[in-house]
Design goal:
Number of domains: 1
Strand content: 25-35%
Shape: elongated
Largest sheet: 13 strands, mixed
């Protein structure tokens, strides 16, 4: 594997734990999500939406649909990933647009911008020190690496930035759910749906007022908060002078060995 491919694989590994409602989550993160935006046919904020009287599977299905109807969301928190927590702050929508940051203590982090199939990733210096080294870092400089969501080395980012796909995964995780008593999350009444995972118990909190959007995904080790539903993802993308096509990266020459 080349150094470039190795760096790409590291990016993919960094995001591998993010997809799906059954995935693991990490230490809780502070967030201030805005109230959910009501859509046609759904209760306005502050109005009981009736989910507390439904089965766990029905609540999950309604929550997945509410997420699709919102069309965009901000996810802020920390998830478990390969031994070290991954901190994330992402805005994503159902059109495949995405912007934000991902980082891991022992690996470093990167900024990500996705517009449709176009993808830009900007690793920080800590990331380059862990994967790729100074030769690649010097080539890229203070620029984004430009690729596409079809690039197999970056497929996990494409999956993570697809709100429609994440909603589909959420709606499919209906087995072994346990509904708990209504509690309060982000200052709103919410119904908890719990299920066992390989790392403990994962609990999704669904809003009991207004659109039944997911408010928090929590595990024994932490949580991700969802908010700013319906707020458009920023449309700005890196210009040609701010990015480098990943195909133009040159693999550092191997150091000659002596026999």
């Amino acid at each position: 594997m080349t150094a470039v491919a190795g760096a790409a694989a590291a990016v993919a590994a960094l995001t591998a734990g993010c997809g799906g409602s059954g995935g693991s989550t990490g230490p809780a993160a502070a967030a201030s999500p805005a109230a959910a935006t009501a859509t046609a046919g759904t209760p306005a904020p502050g109005v009981d939406n009736g989910v507390a009287g439904l089965s766990a599977a029905e609540i999950l299905q309604r929550s997945a649909q509410a997420l699709r109807d919102a069309r965009s969301v901000r996810a802020v928190g920390t998830i478990a990933g390969g031994g070290q927590p991954i901190t994330m702050d992402l805005r994503l929508d159902t059109d495949g647009n995405c912007t934000g940051t991902l980082s891991q203590t022992d690996v470093g982090g990167f900024q990500v911008v996705k517009a449709g199939h176009q993808l830009w990733v900007k690793p920080d210096q800590a990331f380059w020190q862990s994967h790729g080294g100074s030769a690649l870092s010097d080539q890229v400089g203070d620029r984004y690496l430009k690729t596409t969501s079809d690039d197999p080395d970056f497929g996990e980012i494409g999956t993570l930035c697809d709100l429609g796909g994440l909603a589909d995964q959420l709606g499919a995780a209906t087995s072994d759910l346990t509904k708990g008593a209504t509690t309060t999350v982000q200052g709103r009444p919410a119904v908890p749906l719990a299920r066992s995972t390989d790392t403990g118990t994962a609990t999704l909190y669904v809003a009991a007022q207004g659109p039944p959007v997911p408010l928090r995904l929590e595990q024994d080790v932490g949580a991700v908060d969802f908010g700013e539903f319906g707020t458009p993802v920023p449309s700005a993308t890196p210009g040609p002078d701010q990015s480098l096509d990943i195909d133009r990266l040159q693999q550092p020459e191997a150091t000659p060995t002596t026999v």
